[in-house]
Design a protein that fits this description.
The protein folds into two domains: about 1-115, Aminotransferase class 4, branched-chain amino acid transferase, N-terminal domain (D-amino Acid Aminotransferase, Chain A, domain 1), CATH 3.30.470; about 120-275, D-amino Acid Aminotransferase, subunit A, domain 2 (D-amino Acid Aminotransferase, Chain A, domain 2). Helix 6 crosses helix 8 (about 260-275). By secondary structure, the chain is α+β, with helices and mostly antiparallel strands. Strands 7, 8, 9, 10, 11, 12, 13, 14 and 15 form a nine-stranded mixed β-sheet that branches. The chain has a seven-stranded antiparallel β-sheet with strand order 2-1-6-5-3-4-16. The protein has helices spanning about 20, 40-55, 60-75, 120-125, 150-155, 205-215, 230-235, 260-275; strands spanning about 1-5, 10, 25-35, 35-40, 80-90, 105-115, 125-130, 165-170, 175-180, 185-190, 190-195, 220-225, 235-240, 245-255, 255, 280.
């Protein structure tokens, strides 16, 4: 494990940090291949957009250079073929009370950890899902953001402890399918794909966007809309996406089995080549 805080090799965070006190911040989880960073432009663009939506005003050009420096330093201490890079930004210290400082001094945390075991196998054999009882909270102001308050996902993830289950499927407040606990969901009907919108809940996934682009290049229509659970259960197949897993085919949900479709395999194959050309050394 490698950990840097504000450009220094450290694990110390002040108790006055608003990220700790209020979840006032954002994070990105990024795949590493050696010392190369996967889909870096998309991740840092989402960070920038998230800061704007949270009203965290900062000189992003300077922040970008600081993040590049932090990540480059951390990568110098990383000596494995694969890894997981997590970047956390908080609004920094702000004292007591919810009102944030007008000119915040952001806290930057760069963390590199080992690649999770067993995930590549799931990409081949498929994932079995738990249908979560805890739903996503409805919040149009925060929907889509990778903000630091992930209590909905924490509560949902506590629902299963079976190693044979790889992920959970979460509904929204209307009882419609919203996402996995750590992933976006795509549903196949008649060689077309359907995925939920994120206007009131869910995460605007980086890998999901890549898959949408690749599907369109292959001539596959993709619709973003509300998805009833019955629609999902009646599908020809479904898969999940996130920045570490790529595409996970789903083989079971709610005691129902699903095939791994040719469309899913085609997208997996194209995605591998796409990611190879979108994994890069940082240039600051």
């Amino acid at each position: 494990m490698v950990l840097y805080v504000n450009g220094q090799a450290s694990s110390e965070i002040t108790p006055l940090d608003r990220g700790l006190a209020y979840g006032d911040g954002l994070f990105e989880t990024i795949a590493l291949v050696g010392k190369q960073v996967q889909l870096w432009p998309a991740h840092h663009q989402r960070l920038q957009q998230g800061l704007l939506r949270l009203g965290i005003h900062t000189d992003y050009a300077t922040l970008y250079q600081q993040l590049c420096h932090d990540v480059t330093q951390a990568l110098q201490q990383w000596h494995h073929d694969r890894g997981v890079l997590k970047i956390t930004l908080t609004r920094g210290q702000g004292g007591r009370g919810y009102l944030p400082p007008i000119e915040p001094c952001l806290t930057r945390i760069v963390h590199i950890s080992a690649w999770p075991k067993g995930r590549d196998k799931v990409s081949i054999e498929g994932a079995s899902l738990h249908l979560c009882q805890h739903p996503w909270s409805h919040n149009t102001a925060l929907a889509g953001l990778k903000h630091l308050n992930r209590l909905d996902q924490v509560l949902a993830r506590q629902e299963w402890h079976d190693d044979g289950l790889h992920e959970g499927l979460m509904l929204n407040q209307r009882g419609q399918v919203q996402s996995g606990v750590m992933s976006n969901v795509f549903v196949q009907h008649q060689a077309q794909l359907y995925t939920p919108c994120h206007a009131s809940a869910g995460i605007d996934g980086i890998m999901a966007k890549q898959v949408v682009q690749l599907a369109k290049r292959l001539g596959i229509k993709v619709y973003q809309q509300a998805l009833d659970l019955d629609f999902v259960l009646a599908s020809e197949g479904l898969f999940l996406t996130n920045s570490l897993n790529g595409i996970w085919p789903v083989v079971s949900l709610a005691a129902q089995s699903f095939p791994i479709t040719g469309l899913t395999r085609d997208l997996q194959s194209v995605l591998v080549g796409h990611l190879e050309t979108h994994t890069e050394l940082l240039t600051c």
